[in-house]
Amino acid sequence: MASPATAIGDPLAVLEAVFGFKGFRPGQNEVITAVLAGEDVLAVMPTGSGKSLCYQLPALMRSGLTVVVSPLIALMQDQVGQLVGCGVAAASLNSAADPAENRRIVQAIRSGELRLLYVAPERLTRPDTLDDLCRARIDLLAIDEAHCVSQWGHDFRPEYLALGQVRERLGGVQTIALTATADAPTRDDIAGKLFSRPPRTFVRSFDRPNLYLSMLPKANARRQLLGFLAARREQSGIVYCASRKRTETLAALFNAEGFRALPYHAGLEPATRSANQSTFLRQDGVVMVATVAFGMGIDKPDVRFVCHAEMPKTIESYYQEIGRAGRDGLAADTLTLYGLDDLQFRRRQIEDSELPEERKRIEQHRLNALLALCEAPRCRRQTLLAYFGESSGPCDNCDLCLERPQIFEATIEAQKAMSAILRTGERFATEHLIALLTGEATEAIERYGHNTLKTFGVGKERSAGEWRSIFRQLYAAGVIHLDIVRHGRWSVTEYGRRILRGEAAIQLRQDVLSGARPGRERGKAAKSPDLEAADPQLLAALKALRTELAGAQQLPAYVVFADRTLIEMAVLRPTSLTALRGVHGVGEEKLRRYGAAFLAVLAAQPGAVVGRGRPAGD
After folding, report:
1. Span 536-544, average pLDDT
2. Exposed site from 225, 287, 307, 604, fewest CB < 10 Å?
3. Burial annotation 35-57 (CB, 10 A radius, 16+ → b, else e)
């Protein structure tokens, strides 16, 4: 591997001067320190935790070039726009740019003017691009959305498979791979495909405590969605749909009800799709109604809600998609609607796909895990984090914590299910165990002699459908464990063994077992204390100025300043450039460009006071 470049300067000083941040977010400092020490790194950090800074800051502390691999042109353009706005020499090579602009960028690579170059994997593997980069001085290769390299990941992209060879072609350059979602098998796959030796691995907590989590079985989906949006007028948000037709139908419905909604799916004309995305990124209060074609890498920090009109594909997909809300750290809401039709649709998608049978089986197990989250008997955040191997207490920020569902004493059912698992050697999947419990003498039951076990028929008082829900809920409660990769085998956890020995009890949800409806989704949108402290008229005036400045430069509004920065301005009311420098997100270049204009708006509003600013932290 090439020798690591020497870092120049103090990371905290660079962080404040360039980005206007007073301190690192949790996990950033450790990763940045490892990168500056020359180590190869695999970083798994939740959306909104500031992954990009983990390669952007080291790039500014070295004299060579950092090459950033990103799968989406829109993401590259957004990040380059933000970096240029902070005074950083950054550019992106992509097919959407004017040929003359791409030639200028290639010349900048050759002359050593750039600090960061964003490039799609398809472009990076072109011989001419590689030739130019091999002649440049590259300090770091950063691979964003690294889960795309793994077939175990939720968004596998074949073009990522060549990146390991690209790394070697560039002389074994130091590499950092980053992703928001990767379980243990996916992490192992990423490390094996991108690195020649094991990288230093960092796995941050998957928790996004600012997100309110809620899930509802469908009653009247249109009415439920409109009720959700009604409490969030003038907010930016995303409504995910399972089909292209559904996005256009719902977008039309929302517009008819007075919302500003735009459809987004792969079947739209490229110009329309691009224009709709641009409107969403650059303007406030737009609802994007989209398929999953929209979203990966979308860097808009002030998305206040994400709603799923239908059940997502997997827990990984769900986590990634809700992670597009609240990236600024302020409160944001999520709602997922699910129903039997969604489950059937997703199962049919898997069965009709061209995936190998083993992969189909894994995807079915992942779908079951998502359904377990929908039917969870306890805090949703506990269940979600447990899926990623992380434990936590009740969050008090989900529907199940705030409105307890109807429950029943289920210790006997749990003991029966675990007995079936243990008596069959922890080697069998759900349907076989349910046949055993209900006393169904299937061919497999008789072949293994399981019809002679004491557990055969011990649960026949319940239907197969009820037992499926019980298994999902026991899984969600951490009583039993599902091995997704190894044929969906069930095993019993230590907590489950305590229940089996009579040392603990378990309660499960009756509503999802019987088909009853749980409580309604809360109508009122969440607000953060800072937002409530800000004067609405002043905040509106600051946003109007931001919109004007962004429009003049053809930039998304948040590239000028994020909502969090404007909220702090409205709360602190700085009256000088020195005081404005203390506001989160105001670096030296943005202070020079925009400081006077925003101070003028602050001075024009009644009630202005002298403000000194405060540490912005994370």
Report:
1. 91
2. 604
3. bbebebbbbbbbbbbbbbbbbbb
CA dist 358 and 353 (Å) reads 12
Q: How many CA atoms lie within 13 A of 186 on its CB side?
A: 25
* CA 150 from centre of chain: 17
- Rounded to whole angstroms, the Cα distance separating 253 from 268 reads 18
Q: Is 495 exposed, middle or buried (0-12, 13-18, 19+ CB in 10 A)?
A: middle
- The CATH H-level (homologous superfamily) assignment of domain 211-360 is P-loop containing nucleotide triphosphate hydrolases (3.40.50.300)
- What is the architecture, at CATH level 2, of domain 407-514? Orthogonal Bundle (1.10)
> What sections of 458-576 are H helices per DSSP?
464-476, 494-500, 511-514, 529-533, 536-553, 557-560, 563-572
DSSP state of 479: S
Confirm if 328 and 563 have CB atoms less than 8 A apart.
yes
Distances (CA, A) of 436 to 3, 365, 455, 460: 60, 19, 7, 9
pTM, rounded to two decimals:
0.72
Distance of alpha carbon 117 from alpha carbon 103, whole angstroms: 13
Tokens 């070295």 sit at which residue?
A: 62
Domain ranges of the chain: 11-203, 211-360, 407-514, 529-604
Superfamily of domain 11-203: P-loop containing nucleotide triphosphate hydrolases (3.40.50.300)
AA identity, residue 29: N
DSSP summary character for residue 327? T
* CATH domain 529-604 topology: DNA polymerase; domain 1 (1.10.150)
Q: What is the 3-state secondary structure (H, E, C) of 524-551?
A: CCCCCHHHHHCCHHHHHHHHHHHHHHHH
Mean model confidence pLDDT for the chain: 86
As separate numbers, helices (DSSP H) first and strands (DSSP E) second, the chain gives: 29, 18
Segment (H or E) for 490: strand 489-492
- Reduce the DSSP state of residue 492 to 3 states and report it: strand
Tell me the per-residue pLDDT of 367-384, one tens digit each, with 9 for 90 and over. Answer: 888 888 988 888 999 999
Distance CA 558, CA 85 (A): 11
Q: pLDDT band at 612, cuts 50/70/90?
A: very low
pLDDT of residue 510: 85
* Sheet-wide strand order for 200-203: 90-93, 116-119, 65-69, 138-143, 175-179, 41-44, 200-203
User: What 3-state class would DSSP assign to 573?
Assistant: coil
Asked if 11-203 and 211-360 have one fold, the answer is: yes
Interatomic CA distance for residues 190 and 273, integer angstroms: 31
